Structure formats: structure tokens, C-alpha cells
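Chain A, query sequence.
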Amino acid sequence: MAEWVWEGKTRSGEVRKGTIEADSVRDVHLKLRQQNIQPDKVKKKRQASIKLPKIGGGGKVRAEELVVFVRQFSTMIDAGLPLVQCLEILSSQQPNRTFKAVLVDVKSSVESGATFADSLKNHPRVFDDLFVNLVAAGEIGGILDTILNRLAAYIEKNVKLVRQVKAALTYPMGVLVVAIVVVTALLKWVIPTFENMFADFGNAKLPALTQMVINMSHWFAANFMYLAIGLFVGLYVFRRVLATDKGRTAFDAFLLKTPIFGDLLRKVAVAKFTRTLGTMISSGVPILDGLEIVAKSSGNKIIESGIYFVRDKIAEGSNMADPLAKTGVFPSMVVQMIAVGESTGAMDTMLNKIADFYEEEVEVAVEGITKLIEPFMMVFLGGVVGTILIAMYLPIFEVAGNIQS
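Chain A, predicted structure.
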């Protein structure tokens, strides 16, 4: 449970501020409305955190390092080594100074009497809610080694999924950046050089395409500073808008509706949702807690709202499939397979099968997008640069033709 800072108005319009303890923003809103207060601003209160030594890369713990830790830890626990001894061994051989400091702190916390899960909870930037809840379930059930193996497999699959999405987005973004840099260089430095050369030709009329490109170069040079400032201001405003709930919701809705990437992001969301929930249910985490964690880690406000809607309906006594269908976020095949899983009592198995299927779908979709975008981006870059170069060489061709005549 976290502490939240809020500001809101009573029915009479009186402005009030305060702090409240709750599990999520939704719970804060519910508690305040029960007090007849309409919340306007809600944000998490900053907690004092342990200062960890920084290393290259911002002192972060990479997913690959976490997987290695979990695999080794599971092997040691399975071999019968005490928990504290496992943490001592793994912290002593950890090359990442940040991760080493975290493990040392976790070991100290366990030695002082805290549970392993509670000790991990003190480091949310390294061990998220999913990790902590699964470890807690493993401690209670006495199957910590099994849970850790499931965690390692989940993290590995999640890393692979993220890499596939990045691969689909990196290439077009890279080509776009190169195109912007090349066009900027041509308009600001190359074209003025050609213009000075054309001035030596006398008062000869330049071809229309050449004159248009030169006019663009003049405009670009005159407004370069304003364009640069506008770009930075636009990016700043965009980030501020994304930081708000309404802005993030609108942007996430737009992403899901984009022609090519929207379908890919939906498949990624389904794969992540089913894999995470399946892992948690099979590990003994209650479904309501599982859905809460899945919603927080969805990465998309539309999908997060849909999962919270499903969670609320299940809390009221509904099954999972019916509210899932009403969200309109998840494909009908997923809803039907989950309904079958509910009726047969094999929900975790069905969720993992759906995750396997959609992870393969993501892989195929990424390959298809890459093959589709590659020629398009090459034609785009070649067309833009080629048009500018042709425009610059047209007067030279005309002069050469006149000399021949």
C-alpha cells in the first residue's frame, strides 16, 4: 500500500488537500468519492529511497542480469542452501555494483527477520509487483525454486517480446532520422553553394524545380532557429501531455488504431496479458491480485482500463470471459479460449497456450512489417534526396546543352 497526495473539491466547491494510503489511483478516487470529494490531482508521494552506487548506463539492472540471478538462485534453493547464504554468494559474485548493493540490502533485511518477498519490495525499481507477489506465493507454498524458474522463463519471454517490438520500430525511426539530417544538411549548406555557382551563370532563368528548392533553402535558413526551438518545445509539451491521464489515454487509443503498428501492439498486449496472468495463477496468486498487477504493467491506458473493468466485474461475482468481451480490446478467439479454460478449470494452461500463440504471431508480424517498411523507407529517402540533387543539377545540364548547341 502506497501513500498518495491529493487535491480535490467538496460538493460546496471548497478546495481540500491531503494524503491518503491506497493500493492504486483508482482506490484513491473511490475513497475520496466516499467522502463526497471530487479529486482533481492525485500523485504518489515520494518515498525516501536507498542511494545506490551508479555505474555506466545509469546504474540500472538489466533484465538479462535479473534472469541469470533468478536461475542461479533457483538452483541453489533447490540444492538445499539456506536463503541468506544464497544471497551472500550471489551478491559477492555480482559484477553490477547497483545490483550488488540491492542484494546486500535484501540479505540484511532477511537476516533482520523480514520475509524474502517483503525485502524485495523495498527495491521496486529492480523487483516489480509481479516478481514480489510470485516470490510471496512461493514462500507460502514452499515451492520457491519452482516459482523462481517460472519467473526466469517469464522474464526471458518478456525480454524477447520487447526486442521484437523494438526491432519493428527501430528501422523506420532510424531511416527517418537519417532523412531529416541529410535534408537539413542539403538545405542549409549544400544548396547555398550551388546557388552561388548559379549566380555566375548570369541572369539566366533557373528551372522551376531548382527555383522551388532554392526558395525552400532560403526559408529553411531564415527559420532554422525557430524550427529548432519549435521542435524542442513540441517535444516538451508532448511529454507533459503524456504525463497526464487524459493525454496518455488519448495517445494509447491512437496507437491501437494505427493501421500497421496498432495490430502489432494489440498482439503484444494480449501476449503479455495472458503470459503474466497465466504465470501468476499457476503460481497460486489470487486472480484479483493478478489482474491488479497485470493492469499496472500493461503499458497501455486503454488496456489497463479494460483489465480493471474485468477485475471489478469478477469481484462482483462475474466470470472472466463476459466482461473481457465487453472491453472490446481483446480478440474474440482469446475470449472464447479463456471461457473454455474457466469451464474446464485449466485457466493457467489455457492462458499460457494463448501467450505462446500470440508470441509467435508477434514474431511473424515483426518480420512482415520489416519486409514491408524496408523498401518503402528506401524509396522515401532516395526520392527526397534524389529530387533535391536533380533540382541542383538541372541548370548545369541546361548550360551544357546550350554550349553544345
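Residues 47-58 have pLDDT under 50 and may be disordered. Residues 140 and 210 are 76 Å apart (CA to CA).
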